[in-house]
Amino acid sequence: MVVPVSYYLALSVALFALGVIGVLIRRNVLVILMCIEMMLNAVNLAFIGFADYFKAVDGQMFVFFVMTVAAAEVAVGLALIVAIFRNRATVYVDEFNILKW
Amino acid sequence: MTLNIPSFNLASIGPWITLSIFAIAILLADALSPKGNRTAAPLLALAGLAVAGFQTISLWGKNGLDFARMVYVDNFSLFFYMVFILGTALTVLISLQYLKDYGKNLAEYYALLLFATVGMMLMAAGAHLIMIFLGLEVMSIAVYVLAGLFREDARSNEAALKYLVLGAFASAFLLFGMAMLYGAAGGTLFLNDLPGRLTAGFKPLTLLAIALLVVGFGFKVASVPFHMWTPDVYEGAPTSVTAFMAVGVKTAAFAAFARVFFLAFPTLMPDWTMVLWVLAVATMTLGNVVAIAQTNIKRMLAYSSIAHAGYLLVALVAANQLGAVSLMYYLLAYTLMNLGAFGVVILVGRKKDSYLSIYDYAGLGAQHPALAAAMALFMFALAGIPPTAGFVGKFYIFSAAVKAGYIWLAIIGVMNSVVSVYYYLRITVLMYMKPAEADLGPINFAPAVTATLLLTAAGVVLIGVFPGFLYNLALNSVKIFPGL
Fold first, then answer.
1. What is the pLDDT of residues B310-366, one digit of tens each?
2. How far apart are the C-alpha atoms of B342 and B334, rounded to whole Å?
3. Which of B109, B161, B215, B404 could form a disulfide with B173 if both were Cys (CB 3.0 to 4.6 A apart)?
4. CA B328, CA B313: separation in Å to the nearest integer?
5. What is the nearest CA distance from B308 to chain A, expressed in angstroms?
6. What is the ipTM of this complex?
7. Contact call for B187 and A59, based on CB within 8 A
8. Does residue B276 fall inside a structural domain?
9. For residue B202, what pLDDT is reported?
10. Domain boundary residue, one of B260, B288, B318
């Protein structure tokens, strides 16, 4: 059985939207980072779906790069969270308010 | 199974290789040298930038693709290489004393600057959306770390974290746009192939992709409504990093923005110019109006940088040859005048940034006339008053808009420039016409910063009085865009 590309796309859009909502409404910065990861994975899914549909490898290549970059970004993000936690003992974005948003 | 490795010429990415090697060498030299000896790092960084500059000049005039069509080697990217190299070199110069005052003159700072520069070059030269994405992230991740350089300072932490979270959020939009474009184009992401592949049947998907790309790039260039991070991050980050972000990141993002939109979407120009028209007007107006209310000089320069992103968007909207030329000229001029202004901020700020209010500039004209004159020059340049480079850049941008038929856009732009004169001149008025509230005390004129101020001031006047050479250089570079 072949899964049509529209199914991949629908799932990808749904995941992406959930990620966006999560970033906007959650207040814990760790959860926000996870939501961003979810958005990136939604992108990966869309790439894979299209790559399979068009039989073109660019999309699959792109997924590897996205995963690598996401890992690097999270590494830096977690390091920053550790640094900020040492100074302020909080991970809630509402309390990061020395600088006006 | 045979594996064909396409032929490539390492010389076409010479500047990237040089900068990467020098960055690694800086890290190694730091690890192997006795503790506390950190004089080598900035010198190595400057040496690397000089070598990369020579390589760029020797590549000048080439026109083609390399590395299996992944990399453009053309004058457009080489022009931007030079702007990045110049911006990074001046950033190194203004950082030295500033970081020493904080006890943070770390080798990794210079290595990260070089890595970020490589990322910018990737963005300017990327011929495939993977390259542009990778460049964007190489640059951004390095800059996230730089913004959080003062680990013990809660403001620096907060700035870095806000930048990272919002930056990653915007990158996700950019990526989703690329994925949609991949679908709309039927499985290719080469910029050269895109115009032919974006057929009318997939127009909604293409438009969605363009909208998402505008969000991603709009974030990096700090355009309204994706500008919310700018003032906070500019204020919280170390001043030298703020200068680097204001000039380097913005320039790189505009280079990629222009390349992608001019090359890949010439047929959809009416659609995206309309969106960018609105963004340009909103960006200019909000940046200039809110800048008036700022009392922190770094925050004021942040809003000023938002306003300048608006002017640069006007050049994109114009989407003609003069528009592309003015974009390149203005980004170079902006690099010079903004780095100069931040150099003055660093000098006046001294002692761990204790003098960042604009009222600390009162009486500067009497106590340090040369410094005040330099600041006045940079403020005039940012406001766009002749005979500085800022005036010529704005003149090119607005004439490009008029030429393309966007008369109202040009009028709104000029009106915005008038508004901006208010807050730029306020600094000048404070410096010359108000007595100092307290004795300013001695300013430590570090030789490197003084040299930067002299260089940028000379550059701002020189390319403002004789823009012809750069104009021809840029005109020669934009021939690569067939759609303009």
1. 999 999 999 999 999 999 999 999 999 999 999 999 999 876 767 888 888 888 888
2. 12
3. B215
4. 12
5. 21
6. 0.96
7. yes
8. yes
9. 74
10. B260
Cα angle B434, B440, B446; round to 5: 125
- Using only C-alpha atoms, what is the Rg of chain B? 22
Alpha helices in B350-478 (DSSP H): 364-367, 369-383, 389-403, 407-433, 447-465, 468-477
Residue in B148, B176, B188 closest to A80 by CB? B148
How many Å separate Cα B376 from the centre of its chain?
22
Domain co-membership, B249 together with B397: no
For residues B241 and B281, membership in a common domain is answered with: no
For testing contact with chain A, the best of B128, B134, B143, B158 (most A CBs within 10 A): B158
Q: Is there a domain that residue B253 lies in? A: yes
Distance CA B172, CA A39 (A): 6
Query: Does the structural domain A5-89 have CATH classification 1.10.287.3510?
Result: yes
Q: Is residue B342 part of a domain?
A: yes
Given the structure tokens 């355009």, which residue do they identify?
Answer: B223
How crowded is residue B38: how many other Cβ atoms within 10 Å of its Cβ? 18
How far is CA A32 from each of CA A17, A39, B29, B46, rounded to the nearest angstrom?
13, 11, 38, 38
**Per CB distance under 8 Å, which residues of B are interface residues toward A?**
128-130, 133-134, 137, 141, 144-145, 148, 151-152, 154-155, 157-162, 164-165, 168-169, 171-172, 175-176, 178-180, 182-183, 186-189, 228, 231-232, 235-236
Interface of A with B in 27-86 (CB under 8 A): 29, 32-33, 36, 39-40, 42-43, 46-47, 50-51, 53-56, 58-59, 61-62, 65-66, 69, 72-73, 76-77, 80-81, 83-84
Q: Is the peptide bond before B387 cis (omega within 30 degrees of 0)?
A: yes
B123 and B30: one domain? yes
DSSP state of B247: I
Same domain, B361 and B242: no
The domain tally of chain B equals 2
Q: Which two tokens stand for residue B158?
A: 């907060």
Contact B161 A65 (CB under 8 A): no
Last residue of a domain, one of B260, B286, B304: B260
Please give the single-letter amino acid code of residue B155.
Answer: R
For B250, other C-beta atoms within 10 Å of its C-beta total: 24
Residues B321 and B235 in one domain: no
Q: Are residues B289 and B245 in the same domain?
A: no
Considering the domain boundaries, does residue B6 fall inside one?
no
Q: Which pTM was predicted? A: 0.95
DSSP B58-84: HHTT--EEETTTTEEESHHHHHHHHHH
For residue A88, the chain B residues in CB contact (below 8 A) are: 154, 157
Residue boundaries of the structural domains of chain A: 5-89
B445: containing domain: 268-484
Domain identity same for B339 and B476: yes
Please write the tens of the pLDDT for every residue from B161-197. Answer: 999 999 999 999 999 999 999 999 988 899 998 888 8
